[in-house]
Amino acid sequence: MTETTIVLADDHRVVIEGIKSALREISEFEVIGEATDGWEALKIADALRPDIMVLDISMPGLSGIEVVRKLKQTTPDIKIVIYTMHSSSEFVIDLFSAGVSGYVLKEDPVSDLIFSLKAVTTGETYISAIVSNLLLKHMKEPMGDPYNSLSLREQEVFKNLAEGMSIKEIADKLFISPKTVESHKYNVMEKLRANSLTELTKIAIKKNLINF
């Protein structure tokens, strides 16, 4: 039987070693590469062309969401399973929209990660029970914190604006046009009901997104 090849991308070596240990006794999977930052993940995926990439969201160099978007442009057939501590429903929705096939939390049993790998191998999608419950809760509580209505991209722009970055700096960092950043800025200010960058910064501080 042909083995399913996997690349692991996480900035914590202990996580990579833990996944490798869990997969060692499962003959149908073979870990062929490892990456500890976003750019390295892209390079390894391009060089090795794995069947699946297990990817964290918080990656240095290039965020997990950017890795997903770029991989789906260059390697559309790759299956991506998100393995992360981030449980926000907006993250889940945005990442599935970007093309991931599975979403598992690091607090889930490692068996959930293995189930996800088996599921995506057969073309299915997989959401762990905890993530599924969070999504159901999100659907039942539409009128919550307005911050939760921001898309993942809008959250990125919001944080960078609050940190004092210019439109051009944000555009360069996120590899999007200044016009797109302006559009996201408008949407963020409207959703958070903020009339100035000062108000945005105050909101970010209250939510512990930045420190001053």
Instruction: Give the biggest beta sheet.
Output: 6 strands, parallel
User: Any idea what the CATH superfamily of the largest domain is called?
Assistant: Response regulator
CATH architecture level-2 label of the largest domain: 3-Layer(aba) Sandwich
Give the rounded overall mean pLDDT: 89
How large is the radius of gyration?
A: 18 Å
- The main sheet orders its strands as 2-1-3-4-5-6
Low-confidence stretches: none
SSE string: EHEHEHEHEHEHHHHH
Count the DSSP helices: 10
Structure summary:
The chain has 212 residues and is of the alpha/beta class.
Describe how the helices and strands are arranged.
Blueprint: E1 4-9, H1 13-23, E2 29-35, H2 38-48, E3 52-55, H3 64-74, E4 79-84, H4 89-98, E5 102-105, H5 110-121, E6 126-127, H6 129-140, H7 152-162, H8 167-174, H9 178-191, H10 197-206
Parallel strand pairs: 1-2, 1-3, 3-4, 4-5, 5-6
